Amino acid sequence: MSKPLFNEFSTVPSLLRHVVEHIHPPAHPFLMDKKGTEWVEISFEDTLKRADAVAAYFLEQGVVKGDRMGLMIENSPEYVYYDQGIQQIGAINVSVYPTLSEQEVAYILNDSGMKAILVGNPFLFRKVLKVAGNCRELRYIIPAFEGHEKVALPETLQAEVISFEDILRLKQQVTAAERAAIDQSRRLLLPQDVSALIYTSGTTGIPKGVMLTHSNFVENVKVCLQQIPVIDKNETFLSFLPLSHVFERTATYHVCCAQGCKIAFAQSLELLAKNMAEVRPTVMNCVPRLLERIHDKAIKSGTSAGGVKAGIFTWALETGQAYRQKKEAGHNPGLLLAAKKALAEKLVFSKIKEKTGGRLKFMISGGAALPRNVGEFFGNLGIKILEGFGLTETSPVMSVTEYHRQVYGTVGRVIPGIEIGIQDIETRQFHSIQTHETFNENFESAEGEIVVRGHCVMKGYFNKPAETAEAIDREGWFHTGDIGRFFKGNLQITDRLKNMIVNAYGKNVYPTPVENIYLKSTKIDQLFLIGDKKEYITAIVIPNRENLEEQFGLTETFFQQPETFIEDKAIQDWIAADIRKLSNELAKFERIKNFKVKRTPFSQEAGEVTPTLKVKRRVVEQKYAQAIKDMYSEPVEE
């Protein structure tokens, strides 16, 4: 395996230069993009050539180090060309979630003082055009799609519209003087310079621009590769999580830039399964929801027919579990169990793995807590799921599972070079401070707020010194707002501090672990717990649509009805049966006593969830206040 020479780079644009000098020849494929029915490969050389064209164009337009340059585009080669181009002249990447509203887009354009924005499709182009007249600093709108000329421009538009294709064509041949200017800009770039502004989606309040430096990103990549050394130069990553989010930016894009791995861009979430079969990735970053859906479909497919087929499926999972537990305990599974595992692999596991392309070494799950039973399910199949934890403000990785040491229900070992503390919520005294070096697989700590100090912590919030000072204390500790503890040496997340429910009797209820118990039910797709200052816990439940349709013979018309909540008693009883059964796994004060069945999922369009799919607690509680009030006025079973 080719080990990267980490001391040779310290800024984002130096990563790819390092690859073509030490890991791969320039003509080696780097990006994969589907054009029509074919996957097209793009070399490191061609990527750098197009990045240089972008850099030369913007230098000619007077863009200087520190200028903010926007992107509102789906994952694509164009994202990489533009980002690499602006990074090497010291400009700052401001990626905007394509799903944000016009008002939110306008806020970010103005707050950041964005000079230019790359847009990926006609819908996004129109969205930017509607707000561009009110954005003082915006000088260039750059459509990266064909046919942008057909979109009518507002008469009041001050910004210039130039297509990305025209920029690449104009600077197809970079002159010697331009090359020298680009090289000089790259040499003047410092590790502590800001590389990106990433606006927090936040479940409350106004978005804040998180300033992440080149050092934040590069150090995060270095230590992640140190913690997961099995990632080598021959990996193929399938990228589908948004590059506007820090998780995919660091854990796919920057990791691949550092290690020379190949990146294939998925066409869409809907086509992800098809793309997995075509690309046959070896590594993928994902969110728990995707893994839960794969889990649910596999269980349903394996057991719904009943009889012998279901029996074989259940036997295979039990065999896989026994084999996994032996291996994880450091024991030899023995010849008989190994033979059973080989048969289970042939009869069941291989067929599930084929749907992922059949080459996956592992997947990295982040963005939310992965239910333990889902992680164990994949482990039983022989598909390793590594969990990581972090926030936008921490670049993002603070901890990640080691490849050889899995502790389900935790988010792994502290990465090298940082400190993670567990601080008492009331007294602010430290229960524990752990580093990579202090790791002890038998160590456990009390629960408290997770705080972090070290190279991963952001430079601060853009133009918000007061908010920065509130988040990072005088000792340099960044307060995550997450509750957790150390378990078997690994970090374990309990919940968000702001999510914590304190019932009328003073009992603390952390929603996430409780919700995860109920989400074991195949009848439930989403669940939102309520109960702060109340005598008991209630919930808004979103049923699994596929199973609901199948059970009750429902059609699309049912889900288009205007009533927010389903009042059908048969459906309520159907869900209640699972809630009653799963409640036995919880303490009495954590159990759901009443619930409402919501017809449609919480959505970003309705303002109920953030772009990273976190439910906005305050919004949901206000929006459905009457339904919540009704749940506490109705009689409940004890």
Which characteristics define this entry?
single chain, about 650 residues, alpha/beta, Rossmann fold, Luciferase, domain 3, GMP Synthetase, Chain A, domain 3, nine-stranded mixed β-sheet, eight-stranded mixed β-sheet, globular, disordered N terminus
Give a structural overview.
The protein has 638 residues and is α/β, with parallel strands linked by helices. Among the domains are: 9-216, Rossmann fold (3-Layer(aba) Sandwich); 416-495, Luciferase, domain 3 (Roll); 500-633, ANL, C-terminal domain (GMP Synthetase, Chain A, domain 3). It is 38% helix and 21% strand. The chain contains 21 helices and 28 strands. The chain has a 9-stranded mixed β-sheet, with helices on both faces. It has an 8-stranded mixed β-sheet with strand order 7-6-5-3-4-8-9-20, with helices on both faces. Strand 25 and strand 26 form a beta hairpin. Helix 2 (44-60) packs across helix 6 (164-170), helix 8 packs across helix 9 (246-259) and helix 12 (307-328) packs across helix 13 (334-354). The longest helix has 22 residues, at 307-328. It is globular and about 75 Å long. The protein starts with 13 loop residues before the first helix and ends in a 5-residue tail after the last helix. Residues 1-7 have low confidence and may be disordered.
